[in-house]
Structures are given as structure tokens and as C-alpha cells.
Amino acid sequence: MSKFDEKVALYKKFMDDRDIRSNTDLLTAVTKGLGPSIYKKDAETVSGTDPKELETVKKNFLMKKLGLADSAELDKAIDDVMERIGRSERNKYRAVVYYMLVKKFDKESVYGM
């Protein structure tokens, strides 16, 4: 199993452990879109309590990547995802957060799904 496949399996298990339904093909595509950042501990995760980090998720992912307009709905979606994963969870994997946001906004088409 490649290092990439190991990461996808880790994220899938993380989601399964929390009863978060997932589509492996979409999870793989989202993970691939993150490039080498998945191999860097700090870049691999999202801090759910750092306003700067959450703003980065909103601007760089939701607005730039998914093409969504800035609105309070984006902040609420990020907050909902953080709540669903669990506020006390230290490892909020970026691939999982992004996957959940893609599903929340029905933007699977960005990844060819």
C-alpha cells in the first residue's frame, strides 16, 4: 500500500469511527487535491479553534476552490463540520473537513463526481 493509500485509509477510518458516511472515490479525490500537505503534520490538520485557520478554510477552499460567495452560511457550514467531527478532537484532518464541506454544498462536480 502506498503512503497516499495509507492516508486515505486513515481518513476513511477516522470518518467511520465517527459514523460519518463517506464515498471513497470522493475522499480520494479531495485528498489528492491537497497534494503533499497531507504528509506534513501541521498542514494535514485544521485547528477548529483558530479564527485565522478557519478563515483560510473559508477563503482558500470554499471560495477559491469551490467557487462559493462569501456569506455567513460559509462560516456556519465550517462550524457545523467542526461540531460534527467533535470540538475536542485534536486531529481534524483537512481532507475530512474539506470532504464534509464538499458534501454539504453539493460541490462533488469540482472533483469530477
Q: Gist?
A:
With 113 residues, this protein is mainly α. It is built from 6 helices and no strands. It starts with a helix and ends in a 9-residue tail after the last helix.
Number of helices: 6
* CATH fold topology: Recoverin, domain 1
CATH class: Mainly Alpha
Write the H/E string, N to C: HHHHHH
Shape: globular
Structural class per helix/strand content? mainly alpha
Measured as a percent range, the helix fraction is 55-70%
Gap from first CA to last CA: 24 Å
Radius of gyration: 13 Å
The number of distinct structural domains comes to 1
Strand content: under 5%
> Low-confidence parts, pLDDT < 50 over ≥5 residues?
none
Strand segment count: 0
Mean pLDDT: 96
Q: Which CATH architecture is right? A: Orthogonal Bundle
Write the layout of secondary structure elements.
Blueprint: H1 3-17, H2 24-33, H3 41-44, H4 51-65, H5 72-85, H6 94-104
Helix pairs in contact: 1-2, 2-6, 5-6
Describe this structure in words.
The protein has 113 residues and is an all-alpha fold. The chain has one domain: Jann4075-like (Recoverin, domain 1, Orthogonal Bundle). The chain is built from 6 helices and no strands. It has helices spanning 3-17, 24-33, 41-44, 51-65, 72-85, 94-104. Helix 1 packs across helix 2 and helix 2 packs across helix 6. The longest helix has 15 residues, at 3-17. The mean pLDDT is 96.
Which keywords apply here?
Recoverin, domain 1, 6 helices, 113 residues, single chain, mainly alpha
